[in-house]
Automatic annotation (TrEMBL):
Pfam families: HTH_31, Peptidase_M78. Residues 16-70 form the HTH cro/C1-type domain. PANTHER family: ANTITOXIN HIGA1 (PTHR43236), BLL7220 PROTEIN (PTHR43236:SF1). It comes from Candidatus Dormiibacter inghamiae. One of its GO terms (molecular function) is DNA binding. This is ImmA/IrrE family metallo-endopeptidase. SUPFAM superfamilies: lambda repressor-like DNA-binding domains. Belongs to the short-chain fatty acyl-CoA assimilation regulator (ScfR) family. The lineage of its organism: Bacteria, Bacillati, Candidatus Dormiibacterota, Candidatus Dormibacteria, Candidatus Dormibacterales. InterPro entries: Cro/C1-type_HTH (IPR001387), IrrE_HExxH (IPR010359), Lambda_DNA-bd_dom_sf (IPR010982), Rad_response_metalloprotease (IPR052345). It comes from the Bacteria.
């Protein structure tokens, strides 16, 4: 029996939904491509009817997934908007959110295979729900044995605690990063579109704040986003260390020097200066007017010398599987019924759209 016949007999509508959302297509758009009605796509996805062999072939071609990908009996990882934290979600379309969630689901499937063969670092994320963000950041630093100076690499700190971090070209300015727990493991996806190392470090620390503070809270609430920002600022710039370095009035030269020292944006340093009482609310307001007027909210001066931190944990796990077990990208692709380019995209080597 050929692949199309098997896929026809064992067709799982949930996997069609996953493939369609990963491809970024609405039902009406997919229906137009394969010359069916949107209602027919709905029937397939809800399991109320099964596509013919010819339709499976058309779906496979239109979506870029092998026919075997649609077979039932394979779990679809759960990743809903209420349990996924999107950094800077305002204005993101439903289609974009669905596409990013589909990426997480496929990443979850890849991780499940990786963890069958490679022992990853144990997850060590303290649950500090209910604590003040600044206090939580201090406790996390202490628990992880970090001193209170600048961090060389935020991504490396997270990976040592068992967090899977990847970078992907998201092709949007509406989302800087997103995260959630997958298979009992915290996962962070950072936008590779953002080449600003300082802001990318803050994004990673912000997502850590969600893992630490909001494990049981619904995602994408303005209050918890502000809390994650406060956690990130305190984690990157511990108040007890940076307070004595902040000037008593707005001083751009000093702020730029602090940016290079602490690896954070001028905007976050100014906010920290306000929060720690180094400058007044009025001075903070005028400083933000200056930042906006000079376009620094999009392109700050004094870019960090280093590029954004590159994740290593997942890539090295895949390399280990290849070198020691012979499970290279081609083998994984066959096992997951994905093409090699998608495997590389999920591990952070290619664009999200690959």
């Amino acid at each position: 029996m050929d692949d199309f016949s098997v896929a026809h007999l064992l067709f799982d509508g949930a996997r069609l939904t996953l493939a369609r959302e990963y491809a970024g297509l609405r039902k009406v758009e997919l229906a137009r491509v394969i010359e069916l009605t949107p209602g027919a796509i709905t029937q397939f996805e809800q399991g109320r009817s099964k596509p013919s062999r010819g339709t499976v072939a058309a779906l496979s071609l239109a979506l870029g997934f092998a026919p075997a990908f649609f077979e039932s009996g394979r779990p679809v990882a759960t990743a809903s908007e209420t349990t996924t934290y999107f950094r800077r979600l305002e204005g993101a379309t439903k289609g974009l959110r669905s596409r990013l969630l589909a990426r997480l689901k496929l990443l979850g499937e890849l991780l499940a295979v990786v963890e069958e063969h490679v022992t990853l670092p144990p997850v060590s994320i303290p649950d500090l729900a209910g604590r003040a963000p600044q206090e939580a950041a201090q406790l996390v630093r202490r628990e992880w044995g970090l001193d209170f100076g600048p961090l060389t690499s935020v991504v490396r700190v997270l990976e040592r605690q068992g967090v899977i971090v990847t970078r992907a070209q998201l092709d949007t300015t509406r989302v800087d990063a997103f995260s959630r727990w997958l298979n009992e493991r915290p996962v962070v996806v950072l936008a590779s579109d953002k080449r600003d190392a300082a802001r990318s470090r803050f994004d990673a620390a912000h997502e850590l704040g969600h893992f630490v503070l909001h494990r049981s809270q619904p995602a994408n609430d303005r209050v918890i986003e502000r809390e994650a920002d406060a956690f990130a600022a305190a984690f990157l710039m511990p108040p007890e260390a940076i307070r004595k370095e902040l000037p008593e009035r707005v001083n751009w030269g000093r702020y730029l020097a602090l940016k290079r020292r602490w690896g954070t944006s001028v905007a976050s340093i100014v906010r920290q200066a306000r929060d720690l009482g180094a400058i007044s609310e009025h001075a903070y307001y005028r400083a933000n007017v200056h930042i906006h007027a000079n376009g620094w909210d999009h392109d700050e001066p004094a870019a960090l010398a280093s590029a954004p931190d590159e994740p290593r944990l997942l890539k090295r796990a895949l390399e280990k599987m290849d070198l020691e077990l012979g499970l290279d990208a081609d083998v994984l692709a066959a096992q997951l019924h994905l093409d090699v380019e998608k495997i590389r995209g999920l591990s952070g080597e290619l664009s999200i759209a690959a």
